[in-house]
Amino acid sequence: MIELTDQQLGALEASPAEPPLVTNPRTRETFVLLRVADYERLARHDYDDSPWTREELEAAAWEAGKSIGWEGMDEYDRLPEKP
Asked: How many CA atoms lie within 13 A of 78 on its CB side?
């Protein structure tokens, strides 16, 4: 376990609503600092990192299309190249 310095504690207390970001100065990797309770909630069953099903992929594609103004397959069919 790593204990936070006074400066780090001050930064943590300054933004209680958002998880703070922590950077490894050697690798420049960024991490999210979570409370144990939040991590355990995510690690249980609320978070699913299994591969997406075909239905989930299709639903995401439709949502993405709607977000850029596509209304239906006729617009997809008019594309010169299909993705």
From this structure: 6
pTM over 0.85: no
Give φ, ψ of 80 to 5 degrees.
-65, -35
Number of H helices, E strands in the chain: 4, 2
pLDDT at residue number 30: 94
Q: Are 4 and 12 in contact (CB under 8 A)?
A: yes
Residues linked to residue 22 through DSSP beta bridges, in sequence order? 31
Instruction: Sort 65 into a burial class: Cβ within 10 Å, 0-12 / 13-18 / 19+.
Output: middle
> Nearest 10 degrees: CA dihedral of 67, 73, 74, 78?
80
